[in-house]
């Protein structure tokens, strides 16, 4: 008599979740976190990303060798910020940075995790073993400057993006990188010929800034790292060592394990490090690696310094002064192409082109953000606002057209034997506040998924009593 129905994701696809370092570590098991906290670079990365109040608590407890009463720690923060204090307590608990400990007399207290405390002291005060890549090197005969490393990193990363949009201007990427794109759900196998094609999540991914794209991609890579026979703790430690390295400085590969050298080659392909040859004894971290620990939307210097190329007019025409196939392909995600010349592309924002982008999972704010981020210098000089308000409002209105309906999961009840049975069950659903919709003529009703069990039990009692 009942069946579950759902309206989820009919018009609103799930947004791409780009978690930060904290969220990633919270998803790891306590044993894994304990192994990670044996590595000073990871302790430093975790400490750097803690909320300000949490850093304050950690520093106060760092040199205290006994548990401190929870009431005392709470007094370190003004009562006006009690909610922030509660959130900080939750973060430190979930990351296993501290743990509860009893104090003589029965008072509850907190003490820092011994492993985290020991290794954070090492990284702040000095000591411990030298980092893997800290061996001394002879001066490089062909040193690479920051400008070269930035150009190399973006060039390597854009190869991945070219592959996703199916652009003709691309170097092939490795089968390993393709497997990661498939694992991440950014691409899927075409049912017809089995070739990789972009997904809804992939469309959203393309409109993220470079730093967020790289962080998301690396998270997906880490999910598959143990299946490759690599050590997660070793690779994460190296990743965070890169995060604290110096841009433009070369580092040694001497003493690295085979697994770490394999990991280095994967990072080299994605543009996180530059290495002249596979067996070269040195490598240079790029700016992509220096952003990696935050997992936040911190744009690269080249992202912010490079000249914008998009002009948007009030008649919905979009001019892109570029000869990059990748940039043209990205614009084509939400614009209808009209003309293409050697150094400029003319396109137009239409209801159909924007709605097609919305169906692919791209949001109005992402479209507006992309146009604003890559706006031509002439538009920036004429602003604010950078984009014509009418264009911004219309894109949002086109999105709202698709969001006029609210969908909720529910359970359908139908095929009642009599009108009385229908009315009794409907009235019970109304009285408990779980009725979503009903049709008296069709003897059909829908109740919320959470209220289904209660309605089902009531129906069984009613059926037994009336039989």
UniProtKB/TrEMBL annotation:
Any GO MF annotation of the entry: ATPase activator activity
InterPro entries per the UniProt record, alphabetical: Tfb2_C (IPR040662), TFIIH_p52/Tfb2 (IPR004598)
Keywords: DNA damage, DNA repair, Nucleus, Transcription, Transcription regulation
Record's subcellular location: Nucleus
Domain Transcription factor Tfb2 C-terminal residues, every copy: 393-460
Domain of life, per lineage: Eukaryota
One Pfam family of this chain: Tfb2
GO BP term, pick one: nucleotide-excision repair
Gene Ontology terms: cellular component: transcription factor TFIIH core complex; transcription factor TFIIH holo complex
Complex formation: Component of the 7-subunit TFIIH core complex composed of XPB/ERCC3, XPD/ERCC2, GTF2H1, GTF2H2, GTF2H3, GTF2H4 and GTF2H5, which is active in NER. The core complex associates with the 3-subunit CDK-activating kinase (CAK) module composed of CCNH/cyclin H, CDK7 and MNAT1 to form the 10-subunit holoenzyme (holo-TFIIH) active in transcription.
Function: Component of the general transcription and DNA repair factor IIH (TFIIH) core complex which is involved in general and transcription-coupled nucleotide excision repair (NER) of damaged DNA.
Record family assignment: Belongs to the TFB2 family.
Name of the protein this chain belongs to: General transcription factor IIH subunit 4
Native species: Acromyrmex insinuator
